[in-house]
């Protein structure tokens, strides 16, 4: 019954106040929303969620509109929102708020677009302090003037959280202590002063109950809370988008905050010089956000030893130094948007489970990462300028074999180099095992080389290549000596009708049959025989070459004995060389005895070719056919040669 009477009384007061006054600049509204209570645990979704204004709790409402403004009233009101409040409205506002004593259902109050002096603001704040309101939000307040010291009564309050955003002080001459003291000594759990160009905040005069402080987007510097030992209950501290510069001074600021778990220092001007004194952080600090600063790899010398979640995104870190202190508790590390060229090892991060390496300068991530970081279950390495090479292939293969999650795969993983592969997704990049496995490539190359050497050696042996090389060398040397010994015009003068090549075992037939029948027959035939016409003092090879070149034809007496003679082979080789070099038809083959193919050595392949492609004269066994044989042979070598007296062979006076 008492509760019903109180509700009716409040409803009656609403109607009387709004009926008897003309608030042209005040808007009351009751929203149909529910808000969760202010949480002071570590944030789950990052620092951005920490920066939101404390939420308001509302119940069902209905709206009515007076002739001067919108008004929404509900007799079970838990939330009240007022707008456009000026100095002349303060007394009426205080009178209204004074009715919400402890035990009232009103818990959430929001004042927006306020333009009042310091004195009126403190009176409003004092009235709220002793009401049933637990969460007080002020948005867009212009503090006109007259900031002075005031005695504030913090006792007997229901307040839990105060949020102030976009506060502007227009008074140019006032004591900073008068302004900040009223906030620093508040006995509430959460305080937010954001986007207000605040340059300082006093240390509480006694142990503070603050668990949550949010000073987002102000002008605070390294002087904040230095040697302050009163924030022993502070758990979350947000200093995003201020003007802090020294990381070591920030660490000393937190050293006395025994309960601090989360610190957001993102978007400042932080740097750290390795020469600075050693950093000293709060032992309880578990989550630290240092993103969007000017930190280099020296930052790893100034980190909390018990840190669990570390955000170093968008700094100037080029590497993770070796030999730094081990961060045994670190589970999440964000190194995106830095200058790293490879994935870091986990020797100093033994408990690391999540790593973000996106948008760095990684060309070929080392595959050693998977061996070093066994506990990493989530890796973000996309949007790097990958160089599609064998090293990258090894990384992709090991990643597929592991059970960790590669976030952003495959869309965020593309080749940047070489140019012809730019834009290719790594999942579509393939290289053969042979081109990437150096050992396999060397073994394959060695085997192919050995096979090639074996084939070449076999061919050389089979075709007697060394012999031909030696013959080419002999022929070259002979031609060189002849070039220097005789005038060019005498080199090609023919002196013999034919050069005779035969085996010593067939010399009786040559001396008894061939030479007599050609030289003593009709006509003047001059034959070159090595026993008779070789020049003493010259090498045998040189004599052979000279005789072949000065002879119109070369007669080879073929028999099984011929193919067994080394010198016959020389003579055949040089004659065959003349055949091709001079495009002449100078070879005459006489088959004295049949030669079985298996008798001819492999190096006599030229002889096999000649016998297969050229017509040869076969020595007839019947005497009746020999006259025709000699006639054909004599006709083949018939030519008028110049004589020593200027006449030609066969000519008479």
Automatic annotation (TrEMBL):
It is a single-pass type I membrane protein. GO terms for biological process: cellular response to bacterial lipopeptide; inflammatory response; innate immune response; toll-like receptor signaling pathway. GO terms for molecular function: lipopeptide binding; signaling receptor activity; Toll-like receptor 2 binding. GO terms for cellular component: plasma membrane. It holds the Pfam family LRR_8. It is found in: Membrane. InterPro entries: Cys-rich_flank_reg_C, Leu-rich_rpt, Leu-rich_rpt_typical-subtyp, LRR_dom_sf, TIR_dom, Toll_tir_struct_dom_sf. Gene3D superfamilies: Ribonuclease Inhibitor (3.80.10.10), Toll/interleukin-1 receptor homology (TIR) domain (3.40.50.10140). Residues 494-637 form the TIR domain. Coiled coil: none annotated. PROSITE patterns: LRR (PS51450), TIR (PS50104). Its main location: membrane. Keywords: Glycoprotein, Immunity, Inflammatory response, Innate immunity, Leucine-rich repeat, Membrane, Receptor, Repeat, Signal, Transmembrane, Transmembrane helix. Belongs to the Toll-like receptor family. This is Toll-like receptor. It comes from Apteryx owenii.
